[in-house]
Amino acid sequence: MGEPAESAPVKRLYFGHEDAERDIASGLLRAGFVRTTAYDAALSGRKMLILGRKGSGKSALCMQLAAGGHPGGTVLITPDDAAGDEIRRFELQGLTGDTAKSLIWRYVFAVQAARHLVEHARVHGRRQPRAVRRLRKFLHANGESLQDRLYDRLATGARGLQTSLSLEVFGVKAGLDVAGSTTEGARATRQLEVVEQGVADAFDALGCVDSHGRLLLLVDQLEQVWSSDPDSHAMVIGLLLAAKHIAARYGDWMRCLLFLRSDIYDMLAFGEGDKFHGDELRIHWTLEDLSGLALARARASAGPELTWDQLWGGIFPHTVDGRDTVERLLGTCLPRPRDVIQYLNLCRDTAVEHDHQVVTEADINEATRQFSQWKLQDLANEYLVAHPYLGRLPLLFDNAGYVATRSAIEERFAAYAPTLHSTFPAYTEALTPSAVIDTLFAVNFLGVRRGGDVVYVSSGKLPVQPHETEFHIHPCFRPALGCTQPTALRSFHPGLLSPDGSPPPSWGSPQSGHRSAGSAAGPPVGRDFALLDRLSRSCGSVQAAVGRATRLPDDTRAQVLWQLTRMMGHAQDGLLRLRSGRPVDTGVLLLDAARYFTLLAGQLRASHVEDDGRDSVAWKLDDEAERLVRAVGGSTGGSGDFHS
After folding, report:
1. Which residues of 224-241 are buried (b: 16+ CB within 10 A; e: fewer)?
2. pTM of the model
3. C-alpha span between 606 and 408 (Å, rounded)
4. Phi, psi (deg, nearest 5) at residue 323
5. Residue 520: left if φ>0, alpha if ψ -120 to 50, beta else—which one?
6. CA distance 371 to 342
7. Does the pLDDT of residue 298 top 60, yes or no?
8. DSSP characters for 143-160?
9. Angle, CA 202 vertex, CA 200 and CA 208 arms, to 5°
């Protein structure tokens, strides 16, 4: 008797939700959290900017820090649409948009710190320092004591900075416009400096940073309120400037951690940008990191006693399509936790749907096709704001090989360019072949051949170089596009290549015009051996040309060599038939091989995988096709008929 379905290992397995907010609520994030170098760097204060693609684990890291009992306390700031709109609209006369928006962020940070200090002072006893009492009065006087929504705090701060804050508690009279020529921006800056000094005085008065630790401000989910417009750019730049100011102004008392989408950050252009490189930490996940994450998540649901071998070889198979399961699964995903979680859960759900007690190879292959469709759609949605045309670009690769040369992409793009330009007239500068390649590489849709490896953007930040010509579609997107082979090449099947479309007689039967040995009217057996030898030598000649073709992509090279190996196998099978006295129509086999060589040459030319010169594989295929036809003493019936 098998294990009951409800107690099957796959039933107990769950890798978690795609969003950190639900996982932190259920406890799975804490149980299945993998402590990485990014987490350690963020916790230690060595880095201020945590950058990564959507789904790379930024929010999981942020939520873990927020819930992890940071000794100095944490404040989580996640703007919603209303708050984002308030920041984008904030302006001050006499200041640039970036600087003005940095002031409103600084105000939010100061108020958050003030609220924290007033609350934290309770642990120091009933007698609170004068600086803390001043902060409590300031919050009350400016309506900040009871405001819990970020939007309300922003609205209050915006009004106060644009007019006047109540600062009497700090010994400053209302209305800091002591001179009629003082600009709105100058007055706002002066008011903010007074508030920040009050916060600094309270930190200093409590003097507990050594025992209680620094206050940590966490800013996340900014992409929810960002759009590709100047005010959104200024909002993010202002945040960066404010965070840098906090580090300098409050020193060891308080610091900020910003969790930003890397594509948003990389679009920013401002004069102070070079001062942030040392604060950047870009999240990159290795295969080892992701496999460790998968095991940790599995243990969080199935039990801490679950071992690596039980997961990969017990619940999941050891191999899939002849490849190690972990390498096969994680190599199909984009290297980020969200994709791994989605993919593994989908494999598990597919197995449960089919009432399997473990995940089978068939379950994984079925889930892979669905997952690929998801990711192709998600890619367009992820970059909808910055690249609204992105959802159309994969059409350039539909049902083609997953290896594409620069010239092939240029040719396909030329046919599609008028439609793209008319649909997206504001993006014509971004819709050129070179720009499209750069964009597809930047979003991890394409990798580029560099030396002996195919490099995707996650494994290196160097953009595509002008001399680089070979590109590979990421395995994640291949099933959805029907790009399952390196190049769109037909396989060799003797007897199925008739130019008129009708099934020709099998080369292994004596029914065609060229009779085989054993037929009274047929040629002598020596001729059949000679023809098969001619076919083997033609295959060997093409193999040598493939080996010499330095510009032929390695994946395409292997694909062509495999077809030649299959063809030579048919020739060897024919020899065995002849030697055993069975009939073989060698003429049909050679003419089929000639037609296939001609077809293969045309497909290689159409894919632009190499230059079409006398040293090319395509030229050699055509040459050997003619040799095979001459050896038989007949005609292929016209390659033009076959291609049609």
Report:
1. ebbeeeebbbbbbbbbbb
2. 0.79
3. 8
4. -110, 150
5. alpha
6. 8
7. yes
8. T-SS--SHHHHHHHHHHH
9. 100
